[in-house]
Design goal:
The complex is a heterotrimer.
Chain A (H helix, E strand, L loop, with lengths): L8 E12 L36 E2 H13 L3 E2 L2 E2 L1 E5 L9 E5 L5 E9 L5 E13 L3 E3 L2 H4 L2 E5 L6 E7 L6 H17 L12 E11 L9 E6 L2 H20 L7 E6 L4 E7 L9 E2 L6 E2 L2 H10 L4 H12 L3 H7 L3 H13 L3 H19 L10 H12 L5 H14 L3 H7 L8 H14 L1 H8 L5 H12 L6 H14 L4
Parallel strand pairs in A: 13-14
Antiparallel strand pairs in A: 1-11, 1-12, 3-7, 4-17, 5-6, 5-16, 7-8, 8-11, 9-10, 12-13, 14-15
Helix pairs in contact in A: 3-4, 6-7, 8-9, 8-10, 9-11, 10-11, 13-15, 13-16, 15-16
Chain B lengths: L22 H10 L6 H18 L23 E2 L9 H4 L6 E2 L2 E5 L9
Antiparallel strand pairs in B: 2-3
Helix pairs in contact in B: 1-2
Chain C lengths: L7 H9 L5 H13 L8 E4 L1 H16 L11 E5 L26 H8 L3 E6 L33 H8 L5 E6 L5 H7 L2 E4 L19 E6 L2 H11 L29 E5 L10 H16 L3 E5 L7 H16 L18 H12 L2 H14 L4 H22 L5 E5 L15 H6 L6 H5 L3 E9 L2 E8 L5 H14 L12
Parallel strand pairs in C: 2-3, 7-8, 7-9
Antiparallel strand pairs in C: 1-3, 4-6, 5-6, 5-10, 9-11, 10-11
Helix pairs in contact in C: 2-3, 5-6, 7-15, 9-11, 9-12
The chains are: A alpha+beta, B alpha+beta, C alpha/beta.
């Protein structure tokens, strides 16, 4: 969904992402974190906000928050404070959400995202804080009839809220940021960020201003954008709406909106002036969170190599172009696969080519991630080596990649069973060469006349004749010999 | 009973020209707290709260510039819990007190337009 | 039929000597609660069946020569804001109508671990908000010394139950004086430990940064046993202190010589206190001095601001703590509501009493946009100044002595129409929870036939010195042996 920039206005977007942390238990309760359970089958008295219950902080959530903060180049605060955000809703059992407000755990970082011209852009991270998720209100009439059902299984699941600076300039860029952030969170293993399970959600702030204007326009907030495509569509629709208002000489009013995909329109939910007064105050049930410097340094030291550092290493260590390095380091599992394949093969560039071209295509067609594929790094190395050795051809080998991705297996055996060995028999190939030279006598003459690059065309024709199985080395040798031995008539 | 320590009694709130909290404000705050108040209750609460707020305004005679607020009275290290899940509650027990339930879900009146939140 | 034990100590002695069984003591306590004690309205619910079963077990233990603690097998009571699995808890509120807890509070677990037998749950001001036990959906509790008067509050039911000899000990909770004030008005000992000393897990929250569970008994020695049983670190309460619990009962040396007792000049203001109260308190201090204590004047300069700071902080926290009573998961729900907001508003307006609503509105107001800095933040800053006052004072003394209340038990309904006047009667008790320090009230005589309390305040975790001084005082005097006139 790429679009050219709006002709009249600069688009200014900031995103708030909520991502579930990969913990066993909830943020302040020992209830298990589960997905797809029956309503209220994964709760504890704390999740139900029974009279008298008290919160106790999950240490792993703290670990993950620090890790995410460090990985996004944030400052980790040795003291942070949990605050209560007070509002009434049936899936918010305490009548307040425990969040961090004035003193979050991390502030002032950035991540890098790829931009269309192949470069990199740095997007600021304003803050990262921990908070608890709410439960679910089920309004679906098929389930709840003319009432609303409340399921508190999700209530208290630990979330990180990651707030970006208003650095994003188009819906497409917002989409790229979200994809990058998601794969990044998975890469550092703090969140599974599964959109289907609601583990990765987004709110967006958007405003427009005339090109060249330095002041920000009045912004609106889009709530609960649950897929990347949905985010981009919603932002497109809201740009249209705001541009329409501004074009007509009107003023955008601060509001919270929802996006209706069916009509491709945004709709005002409530105006800012009616906004809730959340009455934040430090939660008296929780002491300020104190994180010793040593802990921050330990987590920093244990941090997996981050995307940008790894990318630079791939350029210097493997001599890869920046572009390849960026694609290969987009996810940790892909980078790991590449490095394992390189160590099983030898040189990096062919491995990179095979991964970025054939493997990625096979994955994309099947909507799989590399960790879901049955293809092993060793098998890929073996496959490339079979081509190098002339045991099979590039064409045959490429044809095997989808099968290896789906079902795995030993490339050598697959070549054998598929009858994909390269044909090196001079007699068989000689006939094919003769046929091609007969069919393309003009081209043969041009070669003889000194246009040696015609050779590649002729080789291609021989390969076609042999269904791609011909050993290219043998074909080349035969062609050259026959072209040069057949004297001009 | 007289209180030399604390009580500085002013004229009754109803007689003062400017009150600290209006009936409208009482209604706004009550709505925020999801309490419905009748006109009469709002009026009475406004008078009572005005008197209380007048009393707590004595704090303003105290210079607290640069004084750190106390949220938690005894300084202590952050207690944390190991991330280990305990078995969940018996779901029957979880919803046993519910005024209205269906299966193991709590049931509330339909959320109507404008009541969205979160 | 035997009488309920007069004290924990006498109960323990009678059980040890085989003069009486735990079942007999529990039956006697239940009989008095439901018989001559019933008109006090001290209890809101009995736990007869479970209590008898536990007493039977206690007797069996004793027969095997086992004893869990000095309280093993002795009947006690808890305030109806501490939950126990399978038992109702109301916190004195109609909004918790029908609620049966599916989990148990840490204090109840600890009482059970000590073998104490809870016979019932005592009356309180709704959500512990009050100083008279009149703001309860069960109606007021009466003072055993004078049925026309309040027992104080909010733990008035527990104080009255001990004063009337129904149980020798009971638990209460103190946020701004809710243990010490009713202890004083009912003529019993009441202790509010340091903040974090006793777990709040399972205590229905009023104001989380101030709430603390403590106990009532006739003697400091009995109170020490109660505190030993319930104090200590609890990983389920993030504000629970890690420090080990001393054997309070071993700190009771009976000796106060050399102990420095501070008298804050701001608390001894002639025209602020009932003269009978003041003279009883002065006489008690003189008694300690005669026993070798050193009495010294100290200053707590920010005392005049404590009530204001207390009501801002307590109501703000309460407004948030009480948001969970929404008619969704438990408790009362209004019938026939029109949509969600209407359900919330009607449920909460029907379920909460007038005093609770007043405090929720005040607390919501002081936290709301535009007022937070002026009220809530300001009150927290004043709280810091109050803490510093005590830090400063405890450099010059081991403990502080004051009246617990400016007056003796007031008449029922005397102050219910005047919230500010009611709040001002907490003037001597609100500072201790604001500063997180322990406080104890010990009977120090009568004024016009009504009990007067001497309040002792100590530094954080200084419970032992308070108990030691109170115990020594009780060794020198017999105020604690006085019983309400009508008590058998």
């Amino acid at each position: 969904m790429t679009r050219s920039p709006h002709p009249d206005y600069e688009v200014v977007i900031g995103l708030e992402v909520h991502t579930h942390l990969r913990t066993e238990s909830k943020l302040f309760s020992p209830a298990p974190v589960t997905y797809g359970e029956e309503p209220n089958h994964s709760v504890h008295p704390i999740c139900l906000a029974l009279p008298g219950v008290l919160p106790v902080l999950n240490d792993r959530a703290v670990e993950f928050a620090i890790r995410a903060g460090l990985a996004t180049h944030c400052k980790i605060h040795t003291r942070s404070v949990f605050a209560r955000k007070n509002y009434f809703y049936p899936d918010l059992p305490k009548g307040y959400q425990i969040s961090q407000y004035e003193e979050p755990v991390a502030t002032g970082g950035w991540i890098e995202i790829p931009v269309e011209d192949g470069g990199i852009r740095r997007i600021g991270i304003t803050r990262i804080h921990m908070e608890e998720d709410a439960g679910k209100s089920i309004h679906d009439a098929a389930i709840a009839g003319d009432a609303t059902h409340v399921d508190l299984n999700r209530a208290g699941v630990p979330l990180l809220e990651i707030v970006s600076e208003p650095d994003l300039r188009s819906p497409a860029e917002a989409g790229t940021y979200l994809r990058s952030l998601r794969s990044f969170l998975r890469y550092i293993q703090v969140s599974d960020a599964d959109l289907e399970k609601g583990q990765f959600r987004c709110d967006a702030n958007l405003s427009l201003r005339r090109h060249g204007e330095s002041l920000l326009g009045i912004r609106t907030e889009l709530k609960n954008l649950n897929s990347f495509r949905f985010v981009e569509s919603a932002l497109e629709a809201e740009i249209e709406r705001q541009a329409g208002i501004l074009d007509a000489g009107g003023q955008v009013v601060q509001a919270t909106l929802a996006y209706d995909a069916a009509t491709h329109r945004t709709r005002v939910l409530r105006l800012k002036e009616n906004a809730d007064d959340y009455r934040y105050f430090p939660d008296p049930d929780l002491v300020p969170l104190v994180i010793p410097e040593e802990r921050i340094e330990r987590i920093r030291a244990e941090l997996p190599e981050l995307g940008d550092a790894k990318r630079e290493r791939f350029v210097t260590q493997y001599g890869l172009p920046e572009y390849d390095a960026r694609l290969l380091t987009a996810s940790r599992s892909l980078a790991d696969f590449f490095e394992a394949a390189v160590s099983a093969y030898d040189t990096a560039k062919p491995v990179a080519n095979w991964i970025l071209r054939d493997v990625q295509q096979a994955l994309g067609e099947r909507d799989l991630e590399i960790e879901d594929a049955k293809l092993t790094p060793g098998a890929l190395a073996a496959l490339i080596r079979l081509v190098d050795e002339g045991a099979t051809t590039v064409q045959s080998a490429r044809g095997l990649v989808p099968e290896l991705v789906e079902r795995g297996g030993d490339p050598e055996a697959l070549v054998r069973e598929g009858g994909l060995e390269a044909v090196s028999d001079s007699d068989v190939l000689g006939q094919a060469v003769d046929q091609v030279l007969r069919d393309h006598a003009d081209d043969a003459d041009r070669y003889r006349g000194g246009e040696t690059r015609v050779l590649n065309f002729l080789m291609g024709q021989v390969m076609r004749q042999t269904g791609g199985k011909a050993n290219p080395g043998v074909v080349r040798e035969l062609l050259v010999r026959k072209l040069e031995s057949q004297a001009c008539p | 009973m007289r209180h030399a320590i604390t009580l500085r009694s002013g004229p009754p709130a109803t007689l003062r020209a400017v009150s600290r909290i209006s009936r409208e404000e009482v209604e706004r705050v009550a709505a925020l707290a999801r309490l419905s108040v009748t006109d009469e209750e709002a009026g009475r609460l406004a008078v009572e709260l005005d008197r209380l707020l007048e009393y707590v305004d004595t704090l303003n005679s105290l210079d607290t510039e640069g004084v750190a607020p106390t949220s938690h009275v005894i300084p202590m290290a952050t207690p944390v819990r190991e991330d280990r899940a305990a078995p969940p509650m018996d779901p029957e027990l979880a919803v046993a007190n519910a005024p209205c339930r269906e299966g193991s879900a709590f049931v509330v009146p339909k959320v109507i337009e404008g009541e969205e939140e979160g | 039929m035997p009488a309920p034990p007069g004290t924990l100590q006498s109960g323990r002695d009678d059980l040890d000597a085989g003069r009486v069984s735990s079942v007999e003591l529990v039956d006697a306590a239940l009989a008095r609660a439901e018989g001559s004690g019933a008109e006090l309205n001290a209890f809101v619910g009995m736990r007869a069946e479970r209590a008898r079963a536990e007493a039977t077990e206690a007797d069996a233990r004793r027969a095997r020569g086992e004893r869990r603690s000095p309280m093993d097998g002795i009947p006690v009571a808890i305030k109806d804001n501490m939950v126990e699995m399978g038992e109702p808890t109301t916190a004195g509120s109609a909004i918790l109508e029908g609620f049966v807890s599916p989990y148990t509070s840490t204090v109840v677990e600890r009482l059970q671990a000590a073998g104490a037998v809870v016979i019932g749950r005592t009356n309180l001001d709704e959500f512990a908000m009050g100083s008279s036990t009149e703001h309860s959906c069960f109606g007021p509790t009466h003072n055993p010394w004078d049925r026309e008067r309040t027992p104080g509050g909010s733990s008035g039911g527990s104080a009255a139950a001990v004063a009337a000899g129904i149980v020798p000990a009971a638990l209460g909770s103190d946020t701004g004086g809710s243990i010490r004030q009713p202890a004083a008005l009912c003529g019993v000992v009441g202790i509010k430990p340091s903040y974090g000393r006793v777990s709040r897990f399972g205590l229905v929250a009023f104001a989380s940064s101030l709430d603390q569970i403590g106990g009532f008994a006739h003697t400091a020695a009995d109170t020490a046993w109660v505190l030993e049983a319930i104090a200590g670190h609890d990983p389920k309460d993030s504000t629970s202190l890690h420090e080990p619990v001393p054997r309070y009962s071993e700190a009771l040396t009976g000796d106060v010589s050399g102990l420095v007792v501070g008298l804050p000049r701001e608390y001894f203001v002639e025209d602020g206190v009932d003269p009978g109260v003041l003279s009883a308190v002065r006489e008690a201090v003189a008694e300690l001095e005669r026993a070798g204590a050193v009495v010294r004047e100290v200053s707590l300069p920010h005392t005049a601001y404590a009530v204001a700071a207390y009501y801002l902080i307590a109501t703000a926290e309460a407004s948030s703590n009480l948001a969970r009573y929404d008619g969704v998961r438990y408790g009362h729900r209004a019938a026939d509501s029109n949509g969600l907001t209407d359900m919330y508003e009607r449920t909460r307006s029907e379920g909460f009493g007038a005093e609770v609503k007043r405090r929720i509105v005040l607390g919501t107001y002081v936290l709301s946009a535009g007022y937070y800095e002026a009220y809530y933040r300001k009150a927290q800053q004043v709280r810091t100044l109050l803490r510093r006052d005590f830090d400063e004072a405890f450099r010059d003394c081991d403990l502080i002595a004051t009246p617990t209340c400016p007056e003796t038990a007031f008449r029922l309904a005397e102050k219910t129409d005047d919230p500010l006047r009611m709040y001002l009667s907490d003037v001597y008790t609100v500072s201790a929870p604001l500063a997180g320090i322990p406080g104890l009230s010990v009977p120090c005589g009568l004024s016009d036939g009504l009990p007067v309390g001497l309040q002792l305040l100590g530094p954080v975790l200084g419970e032992a010195v308070l108990l030691r001084a109170a115990d020594a005082f009780q060794g020198l005097t017999d105020h604690h042996t006085l019983r309400p006139p009508e008590t058998p």
